[in-house]
Specification:
This protein is α/β, with parallel strands linked by helices and about 425 residues long. Among the domains are: about 45 residues; about 220 residues, Rossmann fold (3-Layer(aba) Sandwich). Helices cover about 40% and strands about 15% of the residues. It is built from 16 helices and 13 strands. The strands form 3 sheets. A 6-stranded mixed sheet has the order 4-5-13-10-11-12, sandwiched between helices. The chain has a 4-stranded parallel sheet with strand order 8-7-6-9, sandwiched between helices. The protein has a 3-stranded antiparallel sheet with strand order 2-1-3. Helix 4 packs across helix 5, helix 5 runs parallel beside helix 6 and helix 11 crosses helix 12. The longest helix is centred in the C-terminal third of the chain and has 16 residues. The protein is globular.
């Protein structure tokens, strides 16, 4: 990995080599950023070379990633990323946003954004000889790890709160993971998974803990750069909306854009907007208070993927907005359900956490945070099939009729 210089702590800025530290800064527990060797990358690669790559997955950006080529062509590991970006005319007209895009992560192998981090962590696990990988998850991260581990013949251990949606637990089990349901919250599962990794020597994938997760998630920023910023020749900063729970997705996006800017490949840094449910708004609360001190909350939201008491990557998540001229928005669970219903007629089926970003776009436009002529992208992080119960809340019940044409007419007439 000649393209990596090492790690840098996000708090004290101490630097380490990759073999000195595995997870957090030993001085203050800060999250670690992987530091790329931009000079080496610039000598070996260019935007034109990436644009001409045959690979249609996150691995097209291998020169900007801190792992060697993992191989495993023809497996789900190699199909993660390069997800579609839509220009939905219906939503553009409804909102009066002629330059709105939606990036949909549901085509990923396990139907969520979390495949990006899991693919990279599994690649790293193979390089360091770690055969068992563990994570805490409300479902999506665990399913992603279970699927990616299965693809390469590794064992995954998943700690999940027993309240996680059944569809997500089913995914974990189908992929062959060892699943342990915890009597408690996601935060309880997180702490227990870290203890288990230390006790049994497992490699821990946890977001906001393992530095390689943000490196996987930054690949979405690299795709947005290629698919929208360069393709549309934007002459002003793109406003990117993303739901926030633990904070690792938004910090990963920020890292990706920062890497592109450091390479000189990105002129206008996008403005990044974090969107949180009012029932789990620890980072948004800190943003609104003008502080970098993030206080835990007692999370209670139907958007289980972003239901977090204490965000483990909160500081970097906060800075993703403050350092790019973005902001944080808070939306209610009702607004999230409305967003699910609004995305559906545009052909996009989102789970609650995925629709939260679009709810944030609607709120930002209403509040004057963004203008109608701004270029805007909402990141939908997971498929609605992950949480059918929430989808039914958003869509309502279908009528049950007798098998007669008269019954059909009656329904059609109102």
């Amino acid at each position: 990995m000649n393209n990596v210089l090492g790690y840098r702590c996000s708090i004290c800025e101490a630097q380490f080599s990759l073999d000195e530290v595995t997870y957090l800064c030993p001085h203050d527990g800060g999250n670690l950023d992987v530091v790329l060797d931009c000079e080496a990358i610039s000598r070996a690669c260019s935007p034109e070379a990436i644009r001409g790559a045959d690979e249609r997955s996150m691995w097209r950006y291998l020169p900007l990633l801190p792992v060697d080529d993992p191989g495993f062509h023809g497996t789900p590991l190699r199909t993660v990323g390069w997800t579609p970006v839509y220009a939905p005319a219906r939503l553009r007209d409804e909102l009066g946003l002629p330059r709105l895009w939606v990036k949909d992560e549901s085509p990923n192998p396990t139907a969520s954004f979390k495949d990006r981090a899991s693919a990279l962590v599994v690649a790293r696990a193979r390089q360091i000889g770690a055969e068992i990988v563990v994570t805490a998850s409300t479902g999506n991260a665990g399913a992603a790890l279970a699927g990616m581990a299965a693809a390469v013949g590794h064992q995954a251990v998943i700690f999940a709160p027993k309240s996680a949606p059944p569809a997500k637990i089913a995914q974990l089990l189908i992929y062959g993971a060892r699943v342990l349901l915890v009597e408690g919250s996601y935060d309880d599962a997180f702490d227990l998974s870290v203890q288990a990794s230390q006790a049994f020597g497992w490699y821990c994938r946890n977001t906001g803990y393992n530095p390689f997760t943000a490196e996987g998630k930054k690949t979405a920023a690299l795709e947005i750069w290629e698919q929208v910023i360069r393709a549309e020749k934007l002459d002003r900063p793109l406003s990117v909306f993303v739901s926030v729970g633990d904070g690792n997705i938004i910090s990963g996006l920020h890292k990706g854009f920062k890497d592109l800017h450091a390479l000189g490949w990105l002129e206008h840094m996008p403005r990044i907007y974090g969107v949180q449910s009012s029932g789990s708004a620890a980072v948004a609360n800190a943003f609104n208070a003008g502080t970098e001190v993030i206080e835990p909350v007692s999370a209670d939201t139907l958007a289980d993927s972003i239901s977090v008491d204490l965000p483990r990557d909160g500081l970097r998540a906060l800075r993703a907005a403050t350092q790019t001229g973005g902001a944080y928005l808070i939306v209610s669970d009702d607004q999230i359900l409305q967003a699910i219903a609004a995305l559906g007629p545009a052909g996009i089926f989102a789970e609650p956490a995925g629709a939260t970003a679009y709810a944030g776009v609607v709120q930002a436009l209403r509040d004057g945070v963004i203008e109608p002529d701004d270029p805007v992208l909402a990141l939908v992080t997971g498929s609605g099939l992950k949480d059918v119960k929430a989808a039914m809340q958003a869509a309502g019940e279908a009528p049950v009729i007798e098998p007669t044409l008269e019954a059909v007419r009656k329904v059609l007439n109102g």
